[in-house]
Amino acid sequence: MDILKLLSRSTKQTGKNAPGKGAVTLPSAGTPANPQLFHDEVPESRGKKRKRGGEKVDVVKQGEEDDEVDFFASKTAVPKTKKGRRESESEEESKKLETILDEPHLLDEEECRQILRSHRLKHTLLPSAKSQEKKVKKSKKGKADKKKSPSKDDYKQLYPQPLTAFADLRSTYRISGRLAENLATQGYKIPTEVQMGSLPLLLQPETAIKDVAELEGVSAVDLLAVAPTGSGKTLAFLVPAVNSIVQLRRLSEDKKHHGLQAIIVAPTKELANQIVNEAKKLSIGTGIKVVGMKKGMRVVEENEDTVHEEENSSDEEESDEDEEPKKSQKPKQPIAKADILVTTPLILLHALATKNPEEHAPLPSVKTLILDEADVLLDPLFRDQTLGIWNACVNPELRVTLWSATMGSNIEALASSTINERRRKLGLETTARVVRLVVGLKDSAIPNITHRLIYAATEPGKLIALRQLLHPTAKSADATQSLRPPFLVFTQTIPRAVALHSELLYDIPAEAGGSTRIAVLHSDLSDIARDQVMTRFRNGEIWVLITTDILSRGVDFKGINGVVNYDVPNSGASYIHRVGRTGRAGRDGGVAVTFYTKEDIPYVRDVANIIAASEKQAGKPASEASMQKWLLDALPKPSKEEKKKLKMHGVEARRSGLPSKDGKGDKMKISTKSGYERRMENNRKGAIQGSKRRAKEVEATAEDGGEESEWGGLDE
Ligand SMILES: Nc1ncnc2c1ncn2[C@@H]1O[C@H](COP(=O)(O)OP(=O)(O)OP(=O)(O)O)[C@@H](O)[C@H]1O
């Protein structure tokens, strides 16, 4: 059986984007009506929200009826503010507003269960350190000191109040009126699943969860949230962070004072910048200062132990893990005025460096720590840096939330043990307070995109196939066979991204903008160049952006029509994040194309499994699934060791993307020319050089008296 041929054939386009099934909806075609991904049927009498007065409101429909409805305006008398008119909300104003708000809307437990189920939300209270200790003590009687891993019974399922409309943030969870206005101004109407499941819990756990003995007296929970790409996690972590700071600022005498209260860590500069922008939009008029961490910025008072970071030390991520902070010769900067600081891990850790490399300056005022893309931040590459920041947050009231579309059980275990360990060190109660929220199926891509796996026998074949997507022939002129720009193309390494960029540079006709329409972004570029490419791509000036995994996480480009995995991703998680750059906020029509060659066969299974799970999650009948079970079973299963190697280094043969000296890497070179053509070209060059050399030798021999020399031959 030829697996390769079968795989290509079986991954033909199916489903709603298949040829002949009507027009393709493109994700760039406007704002989605409903950003929610899951709306499972709920029986008639259920899923209804009961107001205190007994009046029933259809939960799912709320917010869908009319695009123009202003949910905040109808419920509150929040005055429409002009830009800059009100720096911060006064206590008096907010009290006045609260008295005219609707009464809180709370659902009974059965209603909560139904709604949570219909939106595929699952909350689990993770076992507390205390309960585990008790277990170990019990089991130790006479036995070796063996740690017992928690059993299924140690996990308790919770059914907290879901947030069914943004209006409830104000009426039930009493968020700041200004924050509510900012949300309304940005047009948020229907909460996404992760917002439904996390906001009540983070804003007011005592209202959101009742009658759970383990959480009695717990005023703040820590949260591990696993929710699909593009499902609005940013808003879910920003709203509670902004709100808690507004509330504290209200009580503060000195409104001009800015003390660092929340830290948001993200793995790349691009994502950190994006979070800064979102946080600033939510903080308009609240007086909150949101700052993106920059090189040389000071965040703590220096004492004799503090090492001041050199201003021009090189930057974080990808290339700079080994960097050590050095003593600055430059004058000290004042401490950055910030309430919320958004940072990549290393740059903040440098700013906290002390003379003792094991210790970091503490951040006692920080009460909120948010790890976005937490699984990457706790992966070995960033782990020490992230834990360094975490340990520097010594405030006993610290609340930690971790967010990602993918989170392995090892990361979950590390996170909850770090939370418990930290509390133990600070002499705090180690009772249960870590909640895990999972939206949809863990380890599955978003259900609203179409996946295509395309086999190319050789590297040049991949390039030809990519060109076909860019320039569909008359035969394949169907929209499903082409990729409508804008789209992202991911390669395994920086040299390959650069090489692919130069190959495709002139593929877009001059009338359409030519080479200005295509760009490359990677970590070897300067910050300014990276920012410029991001802005041009966001503005729609760039149509095809070639990049590495640096853009695979978190970055939100609303109108992306497709993602091309020119090189197979290094892991299943990487596939989920890369393809999740399309189909954001529930938009339909995104396409994810993955090319693979013979070298990739051992690793395609993970991707194929994710595609199968995603199609299942989307409710695609087995007959329409692009991934047939027998085919999945036929694909080789990589060993744990192979998977680990792939995750760390990618497909070995493709690592450099440049011709190797021994010629072996040559077949992985990005070029339309086949290995044979390139060899012939080399041979021709060799022949020319050889004939020139011979001519010289003939001349020399003639001069020397005619002794025959050895012939140089062709280059191999
Ligand atoms: N309730 C909502 N209604 C409509 N759009 C929303 C809503 N919440 C968020 N969005 C939009 O959805 C898009 C994706 O949000 P966001 O970037 O927070 O996703 P994410 O879950 O963090 O994704 P990723 O896992 O890729 O980081 C953004 O453009 C955001 O403005």
TrEMBL record:
Source species of the chain: Coleophoma crateriformis
Q: Which GO terms describe its biological process?
A: maturation of SSU-rRNA
InterPro entries xrefs: DDX52/Rok1_DEADc (IPR044764), DEAD/DEAH_box_helicase_dom (IPR011545), Helicase_ATP-bd (IPR014001), Helicase_C-like (IPR001650), P-loop_NTPase (IPR027417)
Q: Its catalytic activity?
A: ATP + H2O = ADP + phosphate + H(+)
Q: What is its EC number?
A: 3.6.4.13
This chain's protein is named: ATP-dependent RNA helicase
For domains, the record's comment is: The Q motif is unique to and characteristic of the DEAD box family of RNA helicases and controls ATP binding and hydrolysis.
Top enzyme class of this protein? hydrolase
Where is the organism placed in the taxonomic lineage, from the top? Eukaryota, Fungi, Dikarya, Ascomycota, Pezizomycotina
- One Pfam match, given by its short name, reads DEAD
What this chain does, per the record? Answer: RNA helicase. ATP-dependent RNA helicase involved in 40S ribosomal subunit biogenesis. Required for the processing and cleavage of 35S pre-rRNA at sites A0, A1, and A2, leading to mature 18S rRNA.
Q: Which family does it belong to?
A: Belongs to the DEAD box helicase family. DDX52/ROK1 subfamily.
Stretches the record annotates as Disordered: 1-102, 123-157, 299-335, 638-716
Q: How does it assemble?
A: Interacts with the U3 snoRNA and is associated with the 90S and 40S pre-ribosomes.
**Keyword Ribonucleoprotein included in the entry's annotation:** no
Q: Where is the composition biased (Acidic residues)?
A: 312-323, 700-716
Q: Does the keyword ATP-binding apply?
A: yes
* Domain called Helicase C-terminal: residue spans: 465-628
What would be an example GO MF term here?
A: RNA binding
Sorted alphabetically, which SMART domains does this protein's record hold? DEXDc (SM00487), HELICc (SM00490)
